[in-house]
Structure formats: C-alpha cells, structure tokens
C-alpha cells in the first residue's frame, strides 16, 4: 500500500508534485475578494479560482479503503487537498467499490447535495460517480470591529456513508485525509505530514509500522493532525512546539496564544502547525506519539527523523530506528 | 414536556420574551464600570443593575427534573439566563421537589453561601426556597498591558447537591441550563439554541427525539454548547463554522484564533458562537452531532433546519426530516 | 512524605526559597536576546544564564517515587522548576533507585541525549547519575508579521523510562512535576500550586487526602495544572476564572481569548494561570475538582482555602473543612 503520509523520498516527491499542482491553481494571481458585507447562499460569487479534482475511492489490501488522485493510487490517509480562501474545489468522486460511500469536508461551504451524508441523500452508490462542490471564502465584516470567520484552517475530509449514516465503517477502514484552506500570504511549507489518530492506530497502523516522517535540519515542515474513531487522544511531538492557534505561529509579540507541544486530538477535530525541523535541538530521531500512556505503550507512536542539513544521517539515528523497529513497543525493558 | 431549546415558534416566542425581559434590565443604559484597579471581596460595588429572577425546580415526567421561570414551566435544559458584565442576578430558587438540590453557576462571582454546594451548606432542602446571588464584572488592569479577565462568556448553571455532593443525580436528570454574560457592545442574536451533550444524550434525548432547531436563511443564530456527565464528546455542526474564542467571531484581521467546526465538549465545559443560518451554503437540513463515531451512531445527533428567507421549506428538507425520523439511527443502510 | 504542592506554611516557605533561588538566577539583569532570524541547532547561543540543579529520584513510602532537590526531599509532584526564555537549565539527575528512569521535559529545547527516552538511550540506569540540558529561547521572526514561538509556557517534566519506553510506571508512581518558562516582564505570583490530574487521583491522592491549598484574600496565586495517565479529565475551580491563553490574563481589551473556569486536562497537557485569591467573591473554602461526575464523586476533589487578608479563618471555613474530611466523598447525603 502506498502511503502519502510516509515521507520516503519516492512518496514525498510524488505527493509534492500533486500538492504543488493543486496549490498552483489556487495561487495563480487571482485577486483576493474584498472583505465586505455578507452575501448569503450558494449563489455568492467566488473571487477565487475553481479547481477540478477526480478522486478514486478504492478497496485496499488488509480490509482497508482509500481515496487516491488516480486509479490504483489510493492511500491511507488520502491526498492532502489544498485551496486558498475564495477558491472552489469540484471533486468528482469515482466509487470503484461495492460499498455505499461519500466524501464529507470540514471547514468549507457546500450545499446539501454536497453534504456527503445519507441524511441529504448525498453519497455514491457502489460503482457510482458523483461530483461534490466545496467553496471557501475570506472573513467578512460582522459589526463593529468583528468579522465573521473565513474558511482558512487545517481541516479534513472523510467518508460519511459507509456502514452507518455517519460513515463509521468508512472512517474505520481509512477513508479520510487532510484539507488545507490557506489565507493569502500564509507561509508555505517545504514538507507536509498527515497524522491521523484513529482509535489505537496512527494512519491505521501501529508501531513499529507507523509512518517515519523525514526532513533535513532547518526545513519548514507542516504537520496536519486529525482525530477519528471512538477514543480520545493527545498528540505529542518531542523537541518541537507550536502556538495553539490557526497557524501555529504567533501573529506578533502580543499574540496571547498558548505555546504547546501536546494537544487533544479527538474524533472530528484537526489542527496544523509548521516547525523548522530540529531548530534549536539539532538533528536526530524524535518521537511523536499519543500521550495517553496505554495508547503510546500500545503502539500509537512514530518517528520524526531529522537528518543533517545535507541529508546525511546524524549520529545515533540508525541505532534509534533499529531500537524502535527491533522490539514490539508494548514491552519495556 | 416543554423544551425551550426546541425552536418551534410557540416556544421560541415565549423564550424570546423572557430573554428580552432579562436582557432589557441589563441593557437599560447603565454606564459601564471604569476599567481600573481591583477591588477585593463581595463588598465591591457593581456598576450594573440587579435583576431578580425566581426559578422553580420541579419533577418532570420520565424521571427528569428541570428548572423553570414559572410554576409548571420547568424544562430540560432550563431557561437561558443572561446578564451584562457588571450586573447582579439574584435567583430565588423554589424547590418543589422532595430532593436536596441547588443551583451552581460557572463564570460569575458568588459568596460561599451562593456556591450551591453541600461543602458550603449552600443548597435547598426539599420544599425549601433559597436565594443565590451571582455577580459579574468587567476586566480590570493587572500590570503592564495585562488585564484580569471579566465575566463575559458562554457559561452554564447546574445542580450541585442532588444524589452526591457534586449533584451527579441532579445533572443526570436534567437540572442544567445556559448562562450568558455579555460584554457591552456584543452583537445580539436573533435566535438561541442550547445544546447539552450529556453522556449518550443531547438535552437528555436521543435521536430521533433530539431537538430540531430552526432558523430562516441569514438569521443570526447563537449556539450555546454545554458538556455534562461521565463521557467525552466532540460537538460538530455541518456547513457552519466559528472562531475558537470568546465570541466565535474574529476581533480583526490579525486575530490568531483557529476557526473550527468541531470542538471538544467535555463535562463542565461550555462555549458559544453565532452563525448566520445557511450563510454561504444555502437553506436545508444540516446535522449537528457528536463526532465520536459510536456516539453519533448511538443517537447523539440532531437537526438544524435552515428554512428559506421567507420561512418556507427548501427543496429536500421534508424528505431529509422524514428520513431522520423514519428509522432508528443506530443502523445504516 | 513531603508535598511541595501542599501549601502548609512550612512547605511553602521551603519551596518559595528554592523557587526564588532558581528564579533569581534567571532574573539577574541579563539582557534579553534580540528577536531576530532563526539560528538552527544546539550551537545556538543563549543570551540567558545557565543554571545548574541537582535532582534526586527516590523511592517513597506507598510504592511511590519522586524527584527532590536534596537527598531525602523527594516529593509528589516534584519541585517547580523555573527559567526565563533564553536561560539554560542543566539538571544532574541522581538515580537513587533500583529502576531505570529519566527526566523528560515539555516545551524546552534539548538534544537527543537529553531526550529522556529509551529510544535515544537517554536515561539513568539504577544508581546512575546523568546530566540533562534544557535550553529555552524567545520568539523569533518567521515571515511577514509572524513569529516562530518561544519557549514561554506552563510546562511539565516527567519520567520517560520506567516500566515501558514511555515511562508509564514512573509516571504512575509520581515521577512528574511543573516546569515554568517565563517571558521577561511576566507578572510573578505570591504563591504557586501544582495540580496533577492523574487517572483517578490528584497528585496521586484521593479525597479527603488531596492537597488543601491556602492563600490570603487578594494574594496572587499561580495554578499549574498537569494531566497524566490513561483517563480524560476536566479541571474546574470554584469562584475563580482565567483566560484560556498563555498567561490566563488578557493582553488588552481586544484579546479574543475565551474566559473559562473549566478546562480539559488530558495526559501530557498542561496549562497555568494566576488568580487573585477570593477576588470578587470573598474568603472561604472553594472546591477544585475534576468535573467528570464519576471522577469527582470518586475522590478527584480538593480544597482551596482563601483566608481573610490578615490570615485568620473566615466564618464557616472550619465547618466546611470538617465536612470535607469527615465523610468519604463517594457518598452523598
């Protein structure tokens, strides 16, 4: 199974290309919509661009299902989808499976027929192709100095129709992925990692088979963390931290946001942040894990390999990776 | 059972009147207290008004208990209580039941005898009437540019004495409600919905008997979400989003708040936000639900009906409501 | 067992001295590093001071383990460690036990050999002494108006090596404590309380043996709340509230932070805030507790005694304390 969240060079370059392609469409010089008074309803004009993507929902080995950008390319999690505030994303979902399924986004605007829910009869029957439209917008004035929020955020998408009316079976089997809506001017990362805490797994895997993400010292890395399933979790990353706000960075010296390195990651929630790999701490192998003790002991842990700036392995890294892979994670010494 | 959180026109107009009455007292042109140095202790003068409310705690059918603003009017949840920062609320609680009970608020100031806890011998014996005083205040200077926070927020109140010293039986049976403290200048909503995630229920109900909230396209709707009980939850609303801060709106373009559509809603916590019904997405039937998969599958889901701007039903809405009511929610197709 | 979180005068003055000592080093007139461009890697110069602390990990009665600043002084939780952004803390950990253990911090910078994890072979064997180095830094410019966050925060430290590779046994037995990194100019408190919600305990104790924290009316009190273990919790403090941001105070009138009195406190997370004891509510005995109903009923509750300004007991306080201690907490009346 291909895993776009796994940052081996081969996978990353493929994903980077896809991501760049999607971003390029959104970034190509379209003027930002003016912040103004609210326009109500789906007829509201978008000042951004419309991008069209075809997604394939496929059955995968091991009882899994995934979304992919081309036939035979489905992965768990699915590809990172990106847009700028104001853009529209038209997703043609090809259901190659024998199951009812759909795609339901968080954070963006959609009419009831793109809700992805059986409640609104918005899903793909087995073998069916259906188009879902996701719109986005900038903040607009409410009253006084206040603004109704725009769509920018680290969001996610998932099935909402397989198994139950809430897509419980589809989510359990891997039909989920990251969706990013950027505000114009946001800093773009050099690498992206998607981490889904889902019951006792990370991206439906357990240690030592969880993703090992890689970056070179100083690279700007974007993490998108998503929660799913029935259990509560806390996401912890060693030796790196971020601001608990929209971007993970501070807007200025008086930004009141708490800086954290551990955050609740519960079903349906998501957040994202950027770090400079190894900044202030150096290269090496750093754990990311659920901080609920019996979850980390049970296998909800993975590695973030920060290589030297030239891409070579830092001292001790091979040994740490070997240590991680060499024993089942449940048992201490 | 009357349900003030259920926005049928009859109920809403009744609640709106009550709410307006309570708000009017708080809003009638009283000068805001100056932001200044702290004044310690209950003797601190309030620059707001004092409002007096009588609440009746009553037994209801189905083993429930509720608070109401008049005899025979108790509901689950209880009425929305509102005040402006600086106001005082004097609540005369009439206990018409044969149980020990109390009322304990979050977010406001009270002396130990208004704590509502058995620890401070602050409760109503069966049949007893007792007055609780809740004060509020504006932020005041701490040091440098910092301020000690005021009382403004989306809070809640609940029993703290029935069954155990923490009111576990009272909370379990419905003795809870929303409390809003507004800052002067806050935008007022046209409608209000109270949603209490409480163990496997919403407002002590399960689908399809959960509240269906209604608004017309573009109406400014205020949601107050409260958590209770023993389980963890995440509140998700389809097709609408809000800023994760005090008001749910952005204070300006550099407000760092994350924008979300899914938020942890755990015991004792509360939050609120305003949305424009159907803004950017159009009218229709939208789900709100706990995003923990086995909670939504188990019945923690309700409907938000956004009608056309003229109050008529949008296409597909009747069918969606029928679908929701027509089958038990636990089973998919 | 000595408990530094328990604010009896004897303990507090001892801890205050230690804390003052640690703070003094950090505060002694060292110029703040300029906010500038990022410097990558552990070679980055610190503009702060380097402080050296020796910690002793010891076995305690009742199967507990603790960290202490002198032999025979270990406590649960361990001492509050403090530094200013830019400072470095060199911790020489003396392992007096027959168990493998370590110290792992949240929020600060450390190389892999100070990670405290078996993954990086960073731990003390039984009887071994080992030095861990924690660095900190101020925010620095990212791009545009944004800053990469500094280290300031209410953090914590804990074992990461006893029992399992995640230190599950060490954490379960009390090897944890608070770590504060302050930004220059932050307001210093008069008292500090550390509250660790850890499975069904507070600081590994259950009511009525949980800590009773004490302050005089109007004193500036700092709470550091830490979550550990396998369960989810919500921290609630009666009659006091704080802003849900880095300091618990508002940065100014347009600070968007929600003001709260109940917050999720899950494994690996921490937060802190300052309140003026009894401000606006008067002296008395106030509960702090987990708001998950069967956790508070099960013993996750303690007392915050606010004395009169002159240190004398307010009316009703003795009775409330007697009530709290006199019956097991699980049973109501």
TrEMBL record, chains A, B, C:
<dbReference type="InterPro" id="IPR002355">
    <property type="entry name" value="Cu_oxidase_Cu_BS"/>
</dbReference>
<dbReference type="InterPro" id="IPR006311">
    <property type="entry name" value="TAT_signal"/>
</dbReference>
<dbReference type="GO" id="GO:0016491">
    <property type="term" value="F:oxidoreductase activity"/>
</dbReference>
<dbReference type="InterPro" id="IPR008972">
    <property type="entry name" value="Cupredoxin"/>
</dbReference>
<dbReference type="GO" id="GO:0005507">
    <property type="term" value="F:copper ion binding"/>
</dbReference>
<feature type="domain" description="Plastocyanin-like">
    <location>
        <begin position="75"/>
        <end position="184"/>
    </location>
</feature>
<dbReference type="InterPro" id="IPR011707">
    <property type="entry name" value="Cu-oxidase-like_N"/>
</dbReference>
<keyword id="KW-0479">Metal-binding</keyword>
<feature type="domain" description="Plastocyanin-like">
    <location>
        <begin position="202"/>
        <end position="309"/>
    </location>
</feature>
<keyword id="KW-0560">Oxidoreductase</keyword>
<dbReference type="Pfam" id="PF07731">
    <property type="entry name" value="Cu-oxidase_2"/>
</dbReference>
<dbReference type="InterPro" id="IPR011706">
    <property type="entry name" value="Cu-oxidase_C"/>
</dbReference>
<protein>
    <submittedName>
        <fullName>Copper oxidase</fullName>
    </submittedName>
</protein>
<dbReference type="Pfam" id="PF07732">
    <property type="entry name" value="Cu-oxidase_3"/>
</dbReference>
<dbReference type="InterPro" id="IPR045087">
    <property type="entry name" value="Cu-oxidase_fam"/>
</dbReference>
